[in-house]
Design brief:
This protein is mainly β. It is built from one helix and eight strands; from the N terminus they run H-E-E-E-E-E-E-E-E. The protein is elongated, with a radius of gyration of 18 Å.
Length: about 180
């Protein structure tokens, strides 16, 4: 828990440091794949990001995402699961330059914390619940398409490796961004 609080404070410092620069906020939604024991399950996600230029070609991006998992099981009275998770990440984005100034592709590399909670109810094995927070790192790519000087849409794919656990995440999102 201390690590998570430290990371949230670090993200808030980044946001306050960048208040005077080109700051961009984005709302995102999409689908993810959870990789657990070499099998994949899908889920929905939504989140917010804030980004600002740090150097000439590096953009710092802080994000907070939530993941919702549908209830699974053959018979809810016999067996059911529910889970939710969230993660806080800090990414460095490297934008590429194209001839078309409206399209801005980028590569992403970052790290953060992932926290998940799972509840299982089983007639045979009883009830079980687990909450865990782990360090994660991720990489990916995306593109932004400018609708005008201040806003646009973005598409993003990230592969997030969660340490000390058996699962990884492939997250695909689309969102709307606005420069403040």
């Amino acid at each position: 828990m201390r690590k998570t609080l430290f990371f949230i404070v670090l993200v808030l410092l980044l946001v306050s440091f960048s208040a005077g620069k080109d700051f961009e906020v984005s709302g995102n939604a999409g689908a993810i794949g959870f990789g657990i024991n070499h099998t994949w399950a899908t889920s929905l996600n939504f989140g917010v990001t804030g980004s600002t230029p740090l150097f000439d070609k590096i953009i710092a991006e802080a994000e907070l995402f939530f993941y919702l998992s549908p209830v699974k099981g053959f018979n809810p009275e016999f067996f059911s699961t529910s889970s939710y998770a969230w993660n806080v990440n800090l990414y460095g984005l490297y934008p590429f330059t194209l001839k078309n100034p409206k399209i801005k592709p980028y590569a992403a590399l970052g790290m953060g914390f992932f926290s998940g909670h799972t509840s299982v109810k089983s007639a045979l094995f009883g009830d079980w619940s687990n909450t865990d927070t782990n360090f994660n790192f991720g990489f990916g790519c995306g593109a932004k398409y400018a609708l005008n000087e201040k806003s646009g849409i973005r598409f993003d794919a990230r592969y997030i490796v969660i340490m000390e656990t058996i699962g990884d995440i492939l997250r695909i999102t689309a969102g709307y961004y606005k420069k403040l």
